[in-house]
Amino acid sequence: MSIMDSLKYKVRNHATxxxxxxxxxxxxxxxxxxxxxxxxxxxxxxxLAGAQYGYNLIWTFPPxxxxxxxxxxxxxxxxxxxxxxxxxxxxxxxxxKVTIIIMIGLLIANFGNTLAExxxxxxxxxxxxxxxxxxxxxxxxxxxxxVIKGNYKSVEKIFIxxxxxxxxxxxxxxxxxxxxxxxTESIVPQFQFSTPYITMVVGLIGTTITPxxxxxxxxxxxxxxxxxxxxxxxxxxxxxxxxxxxxVALFILIACAATIHVSHIPxxxxxxxxxxxxxxxxxxxxxLFGIGFLNASLFSAIILPLSTAYYVCESLGLEMGISKxxxxxxxxxGLYAGLIFICAIVILIPNIPLMDILLFSQVLNGILLPFIxxxxxxxxxxxxxxxxxxxxxxxxxxxxxxxIVITIFIIIMVITxxx
Length: 419
What we know:
Blueprint: H1 3-26, H2 29-36, H3 40-53, H4 61-82, H5 86-94, H6 96-128, H7 132-148, H8 152-165, H9 168-175, H10 180-185, H11 195-206, H12 211-224, H13 231-263, H14 270-281, H15 283-316, H16 330-346, H17 354-380, H18 383-386, H19 393-418
Helix pairs in contact: 1-13, 2-8, 2-12, 2-13, 3-11, 3-13, 4-12, 4-13, 4-17, 5-6, 5-15, 5-17, 6-7, 6-14, 6-15, 6-16, 6-17, 7-16, 8-15, 9-13, 9-15, 11-19, 12-15, 13-14, 14-15, 15-16, 17-19
């Protein structure tokens, strides 16, 4: 090897190492947002899909993951180029009044969503035989202290660790010894024209993209301070996050399909699923499933109130951010703490109509999502905001198709929810 070739080799190696380090530094917003998408409601949906239909619904995962990749890529790009959160951009695009209406809708919906996350903590308590009062109150205090005492960098590291705990579902899925031939064959759609089947498909797709995650992703990209030079690395990180989210969700379905569906065990909730796995896949598989669910419940209970605090403060033009102190951002920290402790108290009230609250928040989320996706498309095609980073034609076509399809499924979901 000549001296010139040696120098070129060293330069290439240095450039590769630099790229890897920049990518690692960019990891955070996309990964965290994607993994939290596997919240208690999503895990229950994937579990029941596998338990009831076996591997049959695996074909829904590629389009689900692809849709999430497109949505997250747009969110990351808007955040980095504009330097503003989605709520701020919506306020600038359509005015304060419309933004306030959207904000109120999201605030109500997220209250119901956060209750769902705390209900997941209650279920986790029952799986491990711990009194729910102790678990819920300790979790609320822990979640509050985590953000109030931390800064963005330290909190993001904790978020990444919590994201990695989701891999317990992959291990549980492998321990279930699935039929990989059937798994592969199920990538080809085997659609069934029945109301329960269509409802389950709608439920799976409906858990993929939610309003809160679009706001949270963009806000954290802005607070992290990702620069234009890091755009491609942050976009790659968001793609990786969406893929990992889909893989984890897929293994939840596979674990239940390979065990509960084959054994014809009736299950109605995650507690049933965790207990049903023990005699079939082994005690550790059930334990891992329970640990994963507790982690998902805690993680979601942190992120949902944070997302709410971000977009409310952005909508009103107020100071916000994990790195800000209570004195610097009183509304941000006050709203975050208030939402956590109110939900923790409400979830412990006997005979609370939890299903009605969750149904209402799900319907409200569904109604708001198409409007938010349309506003995102309007903003990302505004050259005054995005400059040369506006959507290309093919991106607009794909995004429009995804928005139309999701809107149709949401309409079906709302109708079937009331039925």
